[in-house]
Amino acid sequence: MIEEIIDLATADGEMETFICRPERDGPHPVVVLMMDAPGVREELYDMSRRLGTAGYAVLLPNLYYRAGRDTKYGPDVLEKDSADHAAMRAVRTKMTIPPVMADFGAMLDYVDGRPWAKAGPVGTHGYCMSGPYALAAAARYPDRVAAAATFYGTWLINDAEESPHLNLAAIKGEAYISCAEHDELAPLDMVEELRGLFEAAGTRGELEIHAGVHHGFAFPERWCYDKAAAERHWERLFALYGRNL
């Protein structure tokens, strides 16, 4: 594996981005892994590496970069009374979809022409707060994003600009929406409403509810980690990318 951390130029500055890719036999299909609310950390580096070992060139951007370089937090970020948690929330609550879509465009510009990056279709997936970003990217860049997945994405129906539910019909690629049965950030009534919109839009793909699991089930370092569901998430993701990239 080849790993590097670069400062990727965007319209708003330099976005720290972790890149990993196989050492040999390129060019490789490009995948953008978008972080959850706690931010970039070793756990996500390891998830990027797992994709890299399967033959993908993976970009993991720090989407909090506009708030500065001190936006990578320690394990206390998950503790509600901690300083890291408060610092993270101060940044996260200001996040909106359109600037992240501009960042996604900057990543597309960056990989175009790189000798290790396969030209054409890319994939993207997001967890938690970035679930909406993955679907929004598929709608904003329908001719480039061939596969998009969201895992326990938060508030997939809301009044935000470019909320995913507004633009499902614009998605040309395949979409996979994975939801946890127990998730206060994506209640089941919202999920069922989204299912109806998904089907009405004719979006190619699937919405799946994983029974008995909680928000965050795919992360090994979380209290709610569920090994069977986490491995199923990898199975679904690899199948999605394998079909489309």
Features:
8-stranded mixed beta sheet, alpha/beta, Rossmann fold, 245 residues
Describe the structure.
By secondary structure, this protein is of the alpha/beta class. It has one domain (2-244): Alpha/Beta hydrolase fold, catalytic domain (Rossmann fold, 3-Layer(aba) Sandwich), CATH 3.40.50. It has 6 helices and 8 strands; from the N terminus they run βββαβααβαββαβα. It has an 8-stranded mixed β-sheet, with helices on both faces. Helix 3 (97-111) packs across helix 4. The longest helix is centred in the C-terminal third of the chain and has 18 residues, at 227-244. The two termini are 20 Å apart.
Instruction: Kindly report the average pLDDT value.
Output: 95
Globular, elongated, flat, extended or rod-shaped: what is the shape? Answer: globular
| Strands in their spatial order, largest beta sheet | 1-2-4-3-5-6-7-8
The arrangement of helices and strands along the chain is EEEHEHHEHEEHEH
CATH class category name = Alpha Beta
Brief summary of the model shown:
It contains 6 helices and 8 strands. It is an alpha/beta fold and 245 residues long.
Topology:
Blueprint: E1 2-10, E2 13-21, E3 28-34, H1 42-53, E4 57-61, H2 83-92, H3 97-111, E5 117-127, H4 131-140, E6 145-151, E7 174-182, H5 188-201, E8 205-214, H6 227-244
Parallel strand pairs: 3-4, 3-5, 5-6, 6-7, 7-8
Antiparallel strand pairs: 1-2, 2-4
